[in-house]
Structure of GntR family transcriptional regulator:
Amino acid sequence: MSYTVPPTRTAAVVRQLRNEIVTGELPPGTLIKDAELAARLGVSITPVREAIAQLSVEGLIDIAPNRTRHVTKVTQKNALELIDVMSVLACAGFEWGVENLTATHLDLMRQRQKEFVEGLRTGNVLAAGAAGADFSTIAILASGNRELQSMVDLVVARTLRILAMGAESDLWQVWTTGHDEVLELLERGDNQGAITRYRQIYADFRTLVANHLFRE
């Protein structure tokens, strides 16, 4: 019988803080205080400090030379740089994995796409983001390159944070429409067309972020 192993306290704190940062519950610039977080989350200082270190690696928390910690601020410049990095990693993984996709993979991608759309419909940004990320993960893992997926995992939370910032904009539509069209091409056996369309998602996303998300 299969079951889900409960996360460690550190993993649970990482997940909680990551979710709060991605959704904006902890806004950019928020001062992070170990003792206050530990008291609020009902854990000791140690898992909080370990979680902060992990989220610093992910780029969600800045640690200053004087050891003060703040939620990382998002500027147009670093958002566009992040999208460029994510595009290189995810598109390479998708291209490497597409030839190995089976009917089972496509069924899973279709299911994640439905969950993505449903999450958006119900306003559950976290669920939508997780399902949308899984859509790409299925193809990337099909490449057999788990090191690449590990690199994608390091930047995906920050990408979801940008999407959450644009929850009322057309940013999500770029992904939902793009995923639908990628699936249609894959199901027709047009792998090269699917790769091209997948790359276009990132190009369109970058354009929207550059032209609209940070406009005063």
Observations:
- The two ends are 54 Å apart (CA to CA).
- DSSP finds nine helices and three strands in the chain.
